[in-house]
Specification:
Distance between the termini: 42 Å
Number of domains: 3
Shape: globular
Number of strands: 15
CATH topology of the largest domain: UDP-N-acetylmuramoyl-L-alanine:D-glutamate ligase
Helix content: 40-55%
Number of helices: 18
Radius of gyration: 27 Å
């Protein structure tokens, strides 16, 4: 019995560590944000965490039964199940072993050792079992505790990197810095602007989604060099003050606000906080700088701004740069840009959608104001490529994928459906819906479902619980249930789509692809 119990505790700690890595991975996917992780714990408590932890604790419970056969069989069954639960699986975004994560892992290990040591020193066997059982259910919160303990160290490390980035910028007084933000469209605008400004300047931009303070710091330290003339700095935000923090680091002379809409309401709480946070960029622009505002967005247009404003928009009167005569189809878009200074130029692009015309117009406005002649932009606009995973077209033999996997906001989703509606064929969507919308998440997803039903011929929803509000919206529109499929995974959904037998070409919209923590 002693041998069995020793084996029991050994297996328990092995599985405890496997489970600990799982929660650490989820914390990383939650961007090391305590609120996001806590909300994840609440949403996953019954379906994932409770089930996982019960099977981990089950052998501990069996140890109270002084029966060799029951304990041996029970432990064996339990850990076979735990092995299946913790089996190696392919994550969409695997755990990344950064220095921060290594420090976090070390702290968690020390905490576990301290708890185990104290239990072994001062408690009886049955008391140890109770402590270990309770400790198992505290594991999801352990990573949050470890992060709090490590916060002074992380702050010291981050401040060191921030100081280095500031010193690099001080050594480049002639560098022109352009801040770009928005609830959606900021990344596309950044890529387009990089292409257009490169006609005249040596440009560097924050890569991919490097739009946090530390992402900007890393770009400055690793990518910026003395030959660069313009730095395009994308600025993302989840909390009030996030944009200001980046602006205080880079001090942009120009700023672009591409859009504002209900996004990250889980942390912003209301649209007013979103608006004020985006306009932290405008507030930071100096008197000799300019802020470029998309007046096609009502939130932006109606916000008072006492800076040197250059406005732009699609079919919007009274703006500095207006896109008119817009024609959009499945092969591309054409439009004419008219400036308040009397300049007029026709443009064509292979990119589809009115939103792309809007973002390109904003990039044109910035390029012209920085000295690039409008007529020289025609060829560059024609050669613009879609930004990966943002309504990116991937054409196949009898199907075309419209990859919008990085979108998770109501306006972006509506734009994606409008784009899908431009195509002549079988219109198909695969989506898990939108997240991080706070108290309005169910309401906005239900409205999304109604819009889906009005556009699509076939619908695939990913995740029965996650997509429930979307299903309700679809159901309200009396959509044909034979053309609706609820999949457990993205792969299962795509398999169903591939089996659809139709004569028309398939146009498949991938609207949002949630990471593993959802």
């Amino acid at each position: 019995m002693v041998i069995i119990k020793s084996l029991l505790f050994s297996m328990f700690f092995i599985n405890l560590n496997l489970t600990m890595f799982f929660y650490l991975h989820m914390y990383q996917l939650n961007s090391y944000q305590a609120l996001s992780h806590f909300n994840w714990i609440k949403s996953k408590w019954k379906k994932d965490i409770l089930l996982r932890n019960i099977w981990l604790v089950f052998p501990i419970i069996l140890s109270f039964i002084n029966n060799f056969v029951v304990l041996a069989v029970g432990t064996g069954i339990s850990y076979i199940i735990m092995f299946i639960v913790n089996r190696k699986r392919k994550y969409k975004k695997p755990l990344v072993y950064t220095n921060r994560l290594t420090r976090l892992l070390g702290t968690m290990g020390v905490i576990n050792l301290i708890v185990t040591f104290l239990a072994m020193m001062y408690l009886t066997l049955w008391q140890i079992c109770i402590v270990l059982a309770i400790w198992t259910f505290l594991l999801p919160f352990l990573v949050m505790l470890a992060n709090i303990i490590n916060s002074p160290i992380e702050k010291h490390v981050n401040n060191k990197f921030i100081k280095e980035a500031k010193n690099i910028l001080k050594q480049m007084p002639n560098l022109t810095i352009i801040g770009i933000t928005g609830s959606y469209g900021k990344t596309s605008t950044k890529y387009f602007l990089n292409r257009l400004l490169s006609l005249k300047y040596n440009v560097v931009m924050t890569p991919g989604n490097f739009n946090t303070t530390l992402g900007v710091v890393r770009t400055i330290r690793e990518n910026l060099n003395a030959t660069h003339e313009i730095f395009l700095c994308e600025m993302g935000a989840r909390h009030v003050g996030d944009i200001k923090e980046i602006c205080d680091l880079v001090h942009p002379k120009y700023g672009i606000i591409s859009s504002i809409g209900p996004q990250h309401l889980e942390t912003f709480f209301n649209i007013e906080n979103v608006i004020n946070t985006k306009f932290e960029l405008a507030d930071s622009i100096p008197e000799d700088g300019k802020v470029f505002l998309n007046y096609g967005n009502e939130y932006i247009k109606n916000k008072e701004c006492n800076k040197n404003v250059v406005s732009y928009g699609v079919e919007v009167n009274g703006v500095s740069y207006k896109a008119e005569n817009v024609e959009v189809n499945s092969k591309g878009s054409s439009f004419t840009v008219v400036s308040s200074k009397g300049e007029k130029q026709e443009f064509k692009t292979k990119l589809i959608g009115r939103h792309n015309v809007e973002n390109i117009t904003g990039a044109i406005a910035v390029a012209v104001e920085l000295g690039v002649p409008m007529e020289e932009l025609v060829y560059a606009v024609k050669r613009l490529e879609a930004v990966p995973h943002r309504l990116e077209l991937v054409r196949g033999s009898n199907s075309t994928i419209i990859d919008d996997a990085y979108n998770s906001n109501p306006v972006g989703a509506k734009i994606a459906l409008d784009t899908l509606n431009c195509f002549d064929g079988a219109k198909i969507i695969i989506t898990p819906g939108m997240v991080e919308l706070g108290a309005k998440q169910d309401e906005l997803n239900k409205e999304f479902g109604k819009n889906i039903a009005k556009v699509c011929d076939y619908i695939v929803l990913v995740g029965k619980e996650q997509a429930k509000p979307i299903y309700e919206g679809i159901n309200d529109e009396k959509f044909n249930k034979d053309r609706l499929f609820i999949a457990n995974s993205f792969r299962e959904g795509m398999d169903w789509i591939n089996k659809i037998n139709c004569e028309k070409e398939k146009f498949i919209l991938i609207e949002n692809d949630l990471p593993d923590n959802y």
